[in-house]
Design a protein that fits this description.
This protein is mostly beta strands and about 220 residues long. The chain is built from two helices and 14 strands; from the N terminus they run E-E-E-E-E-E-E-E-E-H-E-H-E-E-E-E.
């Protein structure tokens, strides 16, 4: 996709019948209320879905208490979702694959390659929402802290969660809340070139769902001049 002579990468999984939600969460469904083909003047539909469907932004109330300062996704500052961004490869090392979390040692090129306040981690560990695999990688809390120490305010990932599917304690989510970082999950980073030399503009604002625990996003990466 081209926009203002700059390439734009759509990093949003397609939402269509058959897309899978987190096990036990509300699946996507569309109900057609009226259609032009059946004689109506317009087509009109409604949808039911988890707000954590596909590419989405978590609101802090999803994993922390309001009494501790957690807010809904609609209250999150937009600066987390708009601005300079990098795609960083962080494949899970085979020797550590059983841990199901990427750490500092997995960052290709090392942490010194991180030069933007928004970082999208490409783990390559999730097959996608139309072929769900439960053994996708999460993030080690130590990596969250290391990125925060470099000024990162947003962490995105190409899996449904920053914690592994079977995690109950959610240490990555808790570390992210402690460091004031925003979360983007479920991104499709397969086609977006990575590396320290590539700086993008991230465009991925959530819907203004006040007090809500998450929102779907249309996530885009636009090449910088």
């Amino acid at each position: 996709m081209n926009m203002d002579n700059r390439r734009v990468f759509d990093i949003t999984p397609k939402i269509a019948p058959g897309i899978q939600a987190w096990p036990g969460d509300t699946p996507f469904a569309r109900k057609l209320l009226c259609s032009i083909e059946s004689g109506s003047s317009i087509e009109l539909s409604s949808v039911t879905t988890s707000v954590h469907l596909g590419a989405h932004a978590d609101g802090p109330v999803h994993y922390a208490r309001r009494a501790d300062g957690a807010v809904g996704v609609g209250e999150m500052p937009l600066r987390h979702y708009l601005g300079l961004c990098q795609v960083i490869d962080a494949p899970l090392a085979k020797a550590r694959a059983g841990e199901a979390r990427v750490g500092v040692a997995d960052v290709v090129g090392g942490l010194e390659t991180v030069r933007s306040p928004r970082v999208l981690l490409r783990t390559g560990s999730f097959r996608g929402f139309y072929g769900w695999n439960a053994d996708f990688a999460g993030i080690e809390p130590a990596l969250v802290d290391a990125l925060a120490d470099r000024g990162v305010i947003t962490i995105g990932i190409d899996t449904p969660s920053v914690d592994p599917q079977e995690s109950k304690e959610l240490p990555a989510h808790k570390a992210i809340f402690r460091r004031g970082i925003a979360i983007l999950e479920g991104l499709d980073l397969a086609e977006a070139p990575a590396g320290s030399g590539r700086i993008y503009e991230l465009i991925a604002p959530p819907l203004r769902l006040m007090g809500c625990d998450a929102s779907p996003v249309r996530a885009l990466l636009r090449e910088m001049p």
